[in-house]
Fold:
Amino acid sequence: MKYFLYARKSTDVEDKQVLSIEAQVTELRIIARRDGLEVVEEFIEKRSAKKPGRIIFEEMLRRIEKGEVQGIICWKVDRLSRNPVDSGRISWLLQQNIIQKVITHNRVYLPQDNVLIMSVEFGMANQYIRDLSQNTRRGLHAKARTGMYPGLAPLGYLNDPRTRTIVVDRKKAPLVCKAFEMYAENKSRFEDIANYLFKNGIQTRATKRWMRDGGRPLKKDQVKFMLSNIFYFGHFNYANEVYEGRHKPLITKKIFDCVQEVLKIRGRVRKVKNEPQAFCGLLSCGECGCAITAERQKGHIYYRCTRKKGKCSQKYIREELLDTQFSAILTSLVLPSEWADKLSLMADQEEKALTQSAAVSVQALRAQISTLTEKIARITDLFVEQDIERGEYLERKHALMSLKRSLEEQLLQLGQNAAGWLEPMRKWITEAQTLDIIAQSNDLPSRKSYLQKIFGSNLTLHSREARGAPQNPWFYVGQAKSNLPESDLNSTLAEAERFELSIPCGMPPFQGGGINHYPTLPRIPTLS
Structure:
């Protein structure tokens, strides 16, 4: 009678269960020599038997069904199978006398034996792997509840094998932070982020399936996943549930929210076939709403409507004439020195008042955070008592945790610098005073940048004339200068009911007159 020798371990990782295969093969060879068994071939497999579909096991059974051998030598029957499908096949081949013997280290299975014995042992092997899976899952959930992410660390972090925690990768973490900042500015594509990381040593790794696929820039999906990963601001998602992590955040919740807004508004960017001109992307047609493009003809640059929506009667305009109009617009919005001095004085007064009143706002934020913590605990209790469905629980918990994180960052910001939001206003005062320098210079890209700050997407071209309503606070500057003499601007400012700055996301607005020092605190969802 001829035999196949079969040995298996549950993982294909070389540094795990190193001695398992070697020990099995050595013992089985000893059994074969002792009993004088003819071993035709040895089959060694490094794969879990939890599911059917093992390649080497399938090949062994195929050759057994062809009649090449009549028996199997293995350490225990759980090496052959831990799932009902493969267990049933082994039992059926044994009952049909295709397999005449299954020899293990402690017993021999024959076709005439009671089928209950082998069935029980196969059932115990299957139940063991099921219990192991449940116990492992329970342990991972318990680890997640303590704030420790039970998985591989994302880019910018490392798994510490000594402490079994996740620590910051000092080499790659600054690059990840820079990638978030670049994308939050809404000036970079996924490809730009991937190329930036690639130039600094972050690249794809070769896999077992694609050995030549390593050493390249990250793919767009990988960059998008990184920019959408809540792990970087202190939370993590495990088994469709959000947890507060104990790891060190690389970015603030404010920057993460900015990136998510950019991800929402960004579409596919078309490849630029021609060299872009200075004012491209700044204007739209005042008649049909299409974009304004530029082309070079006879040594001059002309701007015209793209006419993507059909016919349009608007005519072209030369770049020199358009630039003259832009210079005049910027000059009309220059902040007079008296007004600038008055605004600076008001900012200094507000800074003193804010320092004194910051304690009240800090106390209010702490009360809101405490309320949110209680609500998270209550909604968890409702889920444990099975009063709400899992989907509703996860959705409401995620919303509460996200809001709590935002309030915690506001609290931290107030504690570090209560008057920090005044800095954008002081920066705006300086920029508004120097608009005439930008208007008179030959730096067209800088002129475009300031026009985008002032008008956003409100600039249109109609009848060869650039038109548009400036955003706050530039709107009030232009309105006051056109209606009042310069000497009366101070009183107009002091009586204004609302004077608001357009500040980057996350910063509270400056409001003159009835000044509101802090943003309105978010409304906390109620549990119904």
